[in-house]
TrEMBL record:
Keywords assigned by UniProt, alphabetized: Signal
Record organism: Zestomonas insulae
SUPFAM superfamilies given in the database record: Quinoprotein alcohol dehydrogenase-like (SSF50998)
This protein's name: Uncharacterized protein
PROSITE patterns: PROKAR_LIPOPROTEIN
UniProt keyword annotation of Signal present: yes
Signal peptide positions on this chain: 1-17
Segments of this protein annotated with the region Disordered: 41-92
Length: 511
C-alpha cells in the first residue's frame, strides 16, 4: 500500500504545471541588504583555451570550461545598488535549480530538481520567467529514497548533474535511463520556446541498469547511474558512472567504448585537454587517453590519502573535488586525509617519468577540514573552500558546527612546492565558488545567524589578490535560501545565479 501511495503522489506532482511568471521566494525575516562596501573591478591577466565543442568559457558547464577552472571570463557583481530576483520552485516539479548554463542569447538553460524528478528549464535572464521546460526521467535514487524514507540517498547521488551546453546551444546530458540525449531549444513561428530532442544514444549495453523503479522496487542486479558527460577536443563525448565505468561515445556513428576502475567510485566531474580526460575516483587521480583503436586507456594513476571514513561536509569517502587544470602542465585536487585534507598538485603530462606530485599542503584546521566542492584555478593560484560540518538543507541543525574557511594557495615557479597566500574565515558551507576574471573577485555563499533563529544568506565577494571580504549582498533569509550544494554561476552580463533549496536566486548591480 505504501508503494501505491508513493506512486500516486509521484503521478500527481508530475502532472502539476509550472507557471511562466515566477513567484519570489519568501524571506523569513529582515537582514541588512549589503554588508561592506561596493568593490572596484581589478581585472586579472591571462586566459584559458576554449574547448571547440563546448559553449563559450563560463557559459556551458558547471565548472566553467574544459579545464574545470570554476572561472568566468566576464564580470561579476560589484555590490552597487544590488538587485535581487528569485523563483520559488519548491512546490512544483523542477523545484531547486542547481546547474546553470547560458545560450548565446543570454538565456538560462538550467537543470532543476525536486525529490521526484529532474527537468530542463529555459529561463529569461534576471526576470527568471519560464520560457520552456523538458521533463527528464526520475533517478533511481529518488525511488530508493522513497522506499527507505532517507533523503540522503538523493543528496549523495551526483548522477546526471554533469551536463554541458555545446557550441550550438544544445544540452548534452545523460539521463536516468542510461541514455545520452542531445536536446535543442528553439522558438516556433508563434514566438514560443520549446525543447526538443535531436539525438539520443543508448548506453545500456555498456552500463548495467537493474535499478529501483516503479516496476521493480527490489532489483537483484547492478545499478550504475551515469554521472556525467563532457566533450573532448576531437568531438567525442566522454561519459563516466558512479561505479567507476568510463568511456567515449562517437556522436557521428554511435560507436561506444568503455572500461572500468575495479572497486572504485566516481562522484565528481572531470577536466579535459588535448591529452585526454582527467578524473578522480574515491581512491586515485587519473589521466585517461585514447589508444589507436579509440579505446580509453589509463595513461597514469596517482593514489592519494582517502582517509578512514566519509566526513561531515563530504558526499563520499574520497576527494570531493573535480580535477582543476592549471596552465599546460598541472592538475589539482584535494584528498580526504583524516585530520586535515591536503591540496595536491600533480604534473599532468602523459609521458612524464619523474615525481608527479609537486605540492601537498594541509588545509584548514585539525578535525575541521573537508571539501566537496572544486577548487578555483587561475594562473598558478588555487582557492579552496571548507565545507566541514555541513550536511544538507534537509538535515542541518547545528550551524555552529560549520567550520568555515577559504584559502588561496599558489604553486611555486620552481615546482618545489606551494604556499598559503591568504586565509579567510568566511563560512561558505556548500556552494561551488566562482571567480570573475574581469572583476578580480571570487564569489562564495555565506550565512549570518539572525536573532529569530534563521540564517541570512549572502553572495560574498572576496578580493582575489588579498582575500579581503569586499561585500556581502543579501539573497534572503531562511531555509529556502540555503544553497544545498549548488554552484554559483556568473552570466555574461555579470549577474550571479545561485541555486537554493527553494529555487533560484539572481543578484546583479543596478544598471
Amino acid at each position: 500500500m505504501r508503494h501505491l501511495l508513493l506512486l500516486l503522489l509521484l503521478a500527481l506532482l508530475s502532472a502539476c504545471s509550472e507557471p511562466p511568471e515566477p513567484t519570489p521566494l519568501a524571506s523569513a525575516g529582515a537582514a541588512p541588504l549589503l554588508l561592506g562596501q561596493p568593490a572596484t573591478a581589478t581585472p586579472l591577466p591571462g586566459r584559458l583555451p576554449r574547448n571547440p565543442h563546448l559553449a563559450a568559457n563560463g557559459n556551458g558547464y558547471m565548472h566553467g570550461d574544459g579545464y574545470s577552472s570554476d572561472s568566468h571570463p566576464g564580470p561579476g557583481p560589484l555590490g552597487r545598488a544590488m538587485q535581487v530576483a528569485s523563483r520559488d520552485g519548491s512546490r512544483k516539479p523542477g523545484g531547486m535549480c542547481p546547474i546553470h548554463t547560458f545560450d548565446r542569447g543570454g538565456r538560462l538553460v538550467v537543470l532543476c530538481a525536486n525529490l521526484l524528478q529532474f527537468e530542463l528549464q529555459l529561463l529569461e535572464p534576471r526576470s527568471l520567467k519560464l520560457l520552456a521546460r523538458y521533463p527528464l526521467p526520475a533517478r533511481p535514487s529518488t525511488f530508493h529514497a522513497l522506499i527507505t524514507l532517507d533523503p540522503d540517498k538523493i543528496m549523495s547521488d551526483s548522477s546526471g548533474a554533469y551536463f554541458y551546453l555545446d557550441n550550438q546551444d544544445r544540452v548534452v546530458i545523460a539521463n536516468a535511463e542510461q541514455r545520452i540525449q542531445r536536446i535543442a531549444h528553439r522558438q516556433d513561428a508563434e514566438g514560443q520556446w520549446r525543447f526538443e530532442q535531436v539525438d539520443a544514444w543508448d548506453l545500456s549495453t555498456q552500463v548495467p541498469h537493474d535499478c529501483v523503479r516503479p516496476s521493480a522496487w527490489f532489483p537483484s542486479g547492478e545499478c550504475d547511474p551515469i554521472t556525467g558527460v563532457m566533450p573532448d577536443e576531437g568531438g567525442l563525448i566522454w561519459w563516466w558512472t558512479r561505479r567507476g565505468r568510463l568511456g567515449t561515445l562517437n556522436p557521428q556513428d554511435g560507436a561506444v567504448h568503455g572500461t572500468q576502475l575495479a572497486g572504485e567510485e566516481i562522484q565528481n566531474g572531470v577536466a579535459l585537454d588535448a591529452a585526454g580526460l582527467y578524473l578522480v575516483s574515491d581512491h586515485a587521480m587519473y589521466l585517461f587517453a585514447l589508444d589507436a583503436a579509440g579505446q580509453p586507456q589509463q595513461a597514469w594513476r596517482e593514489v592519494y590519502d582517502r582517509g578512514s571514513a566519509r566526513k561531515s561536509g563530504s558526499l563520499s569517502q574520497g576527494s570531493g573535488t573535480t580535477p582543476t587544470l592549471l596552465g599546460e602542465r598541472y592538475v589539482a585536487i584535494t584528498d580526504n586525509a583524516d585530520r586535515r585534507i591536503n591540496l595536491l598538485v600533480y604534473r599532468r603530462e602523459p609521458g612524464f617519468a619523474g615525481q608527479r606530485l609537486i605540492c601537498q599542503l594541509p588545509l584548514f584546521a585539525n578535525d575541521a577540514s573537508a571539501t566537496d566542492n572544486s577548487l578555483i584555478g587561475w594562473g598558478r593560484s588555487l582557492i579552496a573552500e571548507n565545507n566541514h560540518g555541513y550536511s544538507s538543507a534537509f538535515a542541518q541543525e547545528d550551524w555552529g558546527a560549520v567550520s568555515g574557511g577559504i584559502s588561496r594557495v599558489d604553486l611555486r615557479a620552481d615546482e618545489s612546492g606551494c604556499d598559503l597566500v591568504w586565509h579567510s574565515p568566511e563560512r561558505s558551507p556548500s556552494a561551488v565558488p566562482k571567480l570573475s576574471v574581469q572583476s578580480g573577485l571570487a564569489y562564495f555563499y555565506s550565512f549570518e545567524p539572525q536573532a529569530n533563529g534563521e540564517n541570512a544568506w549572502y553572495l560574498t565577494a572576496l578580493d582575489f589578490a588579498s582575500g579581503a571580504t569586499r561585500f556581502k549582498a543579501l539573497a534572503g533569509v531562511g531555509q529556502a535560501f540555503d544553497n544545498n550544494w549548488s554552484p554559483i554561476t556568473l552570466a555574461p552580463d555579470g549577474t550571479a545565479y545561485v541555486g537554493t533549496f527553494g529555487g533560484l536566486v539572481a543578484l546583479w548591480d543596478a544598471d
